[in-house]
């Protein structure tokens, strides 16, 4: 496994996903506040949900990165890298809107307590946090800590995979926002 390639691929995915999320903040009020016919979230609510989900995932990513860096002293990083294979296919469904049933925790549901400017600033900070964790664990250390991810039965995943999950989650909701926009055009 080329761990440096994996880290770069995750950085690239993060950058593309977060840049695309950021573009949604510039949409007109009609697009941002459109309530889809199926009763789903507005774009503004989706953006808030992305922030909230990132917030809670980043708590786990921070704990995981700290533990991974501590584990670096006691575990054989080279052996972990050698024996690691990234099951990208297992993760891809996370980025597909509607690909599986997932009941999100209540604390990740948008409450409308933040304005768009705040949400945009917070998501930008979250993006930079992710990049900082990848830079901190630039030699493969993120493999040295695994935490259980129950979504779609992913099981125990390492810190890099958690960051990739966060990026895929944003991608999932980009598709949802695009669907909202398409519905406006059709109606």
From TrEMBL:
Residues 28-177 form the DinB-like domain. Coiled coil: none annotated. It comes from the Bacteria. Pfam families: DinB_2. InterPro entries: DinB-like, DinB/YfiT-like. This is DinB superfamily protein. It comes from Chryseobacterium oranimense.
């Amino acid at each position: 496994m080329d761990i440096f390639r994996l880290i770069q691929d995750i950085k690239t995915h993060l950058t593309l996903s977060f840049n695309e999320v950021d573009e949604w903040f510039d949409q007109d009020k009609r697009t941002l506040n459109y309530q889809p016919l199926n009763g789903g979230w507005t774009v503004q609510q989706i953006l808030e949900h992305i922030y909230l989900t990132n917030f809670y995932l980043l708590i786990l990513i921070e704990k995981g990165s700290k533990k991974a860096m501590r584990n670096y002293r006691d575990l054989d990083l080279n052996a972990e890298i050698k024996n690691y294979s990234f099951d990208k296919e297992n993760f891809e469904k996370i980025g597909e809107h509607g690909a599986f049933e997932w009941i999100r925790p209540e604390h990740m549901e948008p409450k409308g307590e933040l304005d768009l400017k705040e949400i945009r600033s917070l998501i930008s900070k979250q993006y930079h946090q992710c990049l900082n964790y990848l830079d901190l664990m630039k030699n493969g250390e993120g493999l040295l800590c695994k935490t259980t991810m129950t979504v779609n039965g992913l099981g125990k995943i390492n810190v890099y995979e958690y960051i990739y999950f966060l990026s895929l989650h944003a991608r999932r909701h980009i598709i949802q926002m695009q669907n909202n926009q398409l519905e406006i055009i059709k109606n």
